[in-house]
Amino acid sequence: QVQLVESGGGLAQPGGSLRLSCAASGFSFSRYYMSWYRQAPGKERDLVAYISQLGRVTNYTDSVKGRFTISRANAKNTVYLQMNSLKPEDTAVYYCSRGFPGDYWGQGTQVTVSS
Questions:
Q1: What is the C-alpha R_g of the chain?
Q2: Strands 109-113 and 58-60
């Protein structure tokens, strides 16, 4: 069965960095777009970024452009989200998803940006 397991979340100070990872299994990873979403308290789940099968196409929501980078390692069935220059408004649960739009989801990893 499809499994997506996120890791790497935690507490970061404003201006700091975190790197999220999502380990995928149960499907042919290299055949799918992959995406990251986030959900802040009291808000809807929103797209953060997505990446094509070979990584040639990426796209980001405007609020993270220039700060976040999505990448993937098909040999490791893993997708990453490098988050730099973090802001308090980046605080959310971050979810990895198969495809764009996503059809399977991980359990999420909490990212908290606070001094």
A1: 13
A2: unpaired
pLDDT per residue as tens digits for the range 26-58: 999 999 999 999 999 999 999 999 999 999 999
Residues 1-27 have pLDDT tens digits of 999 999 999 999 999 999 999 999 999
Closest by Cα among 60, 63, 67, 82 to 15:
67
Phi and psi at residue 100, to the nearest 5°: -145, 110
Q: Return phi, psi of residue 94, to 5°.
A: -105, 130
Q: CA dist 15 to 1, 37, 81, Å?
A: 38, 21, 16
Question: Which amino acid is located at 114 in the chain?
Answer: S
Q: How far is CA 19 from CA 8, 39, 44, 53, 94, in A?
A: 6, 17, 23, 20, 11
Our measurement of the distance from residue 3's CA atom to the centroid of its chain's CA atoms, rounded to an integer in Å, reads 15
Cis peptide before 101 (omega within 30 of 0): yes
